[in-house]
Amino acid sequence: MGVVLDTPIELKETSSVEIREIVIRAVYKQVLGNPHIMESERLITAESKLCNGNLTVREFVRAVAKSNFYRSRYFESCAPYRFIELNFKHLLGRAPQDQSEISEHIYRCVEEGYDAEIDSYIDSDEYQQKFGDNIVPYYQGATSQIGQKQLGYNRTLSLYQGFAGVDSAFKSSRLVKTVAANKGNKIVLPKTGARGAAEKMFKIVATGFKFDSPRRVSTTEYTVSGAKMTPQIQRIQRAGGKIVSITEI
């Protein structure tokens, strides 16, 4: 079982009814923060338009993010910093990079309103480059990326709550202190079942380690406990490796 959901789900013109249903469920899970959705809370009209090809995944994401469900749970019930960090997680699949990024979005929300804040993510170049019109936004925390700082990697992974976690359970920001002080987050993986994350074992797959031949690049697997996750990640990155995946074993 993977510790993070990092597989793109794309809707195509030829997608079957079953695939379209999978896309709808994936959007609800990602954008709404893994909640239990009652039948009365589903966006039936938007779902129908998506299934009929009259609405892109991107516009369905926008409808869900502007729904009363999202607004009541994250805008009206959470602290402002928490609202912003969850917008980044739900709509861009990452954590905010720094204090200026958070401040920009708080200012926009105050001055331009809720809808403008949601639109700023979905209409951004970053969203278009990552997901386009028909890929469900997905979590970007499982792999390190070129140009990404260790701070951003740790912050993104620290927002992940696990398969059973629900984002609305936390009303206060999880990043406000570390982002404001420009400090790194210690990665604390979520507890699931009887064993805590520190006791669970994980497989880290990393690539990019170069040997004498410029054409030889190795892929290496590491098995570590949750408690030793952060030091191992740091060693891999210091050695010039790129993390491909992290999965629970």
List the helices and strands and how they pair.
Elements: H1 17-32, H2 44-51, H3 57-65, H4 68-75, H5 80-92, H6 99-112, H7 114-122, H8 125-131, H9 150-158, H10 176-180, E1 201-210, E2 217-225, H11 229-238, E3 242-248
Antiparallel strand pairs: 1-2, 1-3
Helix pairs in contact: 1-3, 6-7
What does this structure look like?
The chain is mainly alpha-helical. Among the domains are: 17-140, Orthogonal Bundle (serine acetyltransferase, domain 1); 201-248, Dna Ligase, domain 1, CATH 3.30.1490. Helices cover 43% and strands 10% of the residues. The protein contains eleven helices and three strands, in the order H-H-H-H-H-H-H-H-H-H-E-E-H-E. The protein has a three-stranded antiparallel sheet, covered by helices on one side. Helix 1 (17-32) runs parallel beside helix 3 (57-65) and helix 6 crosses helix 7 (114-122).
Quick synopsis:
The protein is mostly helical and 249 residues long. The protein has helices at residues 17-32, 44-51, 57-65, 68-75, 80-92, 99-112, 114-122, 125-131, 150-158, 176-180, 229-238, and strands at residues 201-210, 217-225, 242-248.
What structural class should be given to the helix and strand makeup? mainly alpha
What is the spatial order of strands in the main beta sheet?
A: 2-1-3
Please state the CA-atom Rg, rounded to the nearest Å: 19 Å
How many helix segments? 11
Q: For the record, what is the CATH homologous superfamily label of the domain at 17-140?
A: Phycobilisome linker domain
> What is the number of E strands?
3
What is the 3D shape?
globular
Strand content: 5-15%
The pLDDT mean sits at 76
Distance between the termini: 7 Å
Low-confidence stretches: 1-5, 189-198
User: What is the helix content?
Assistant: 40-55%
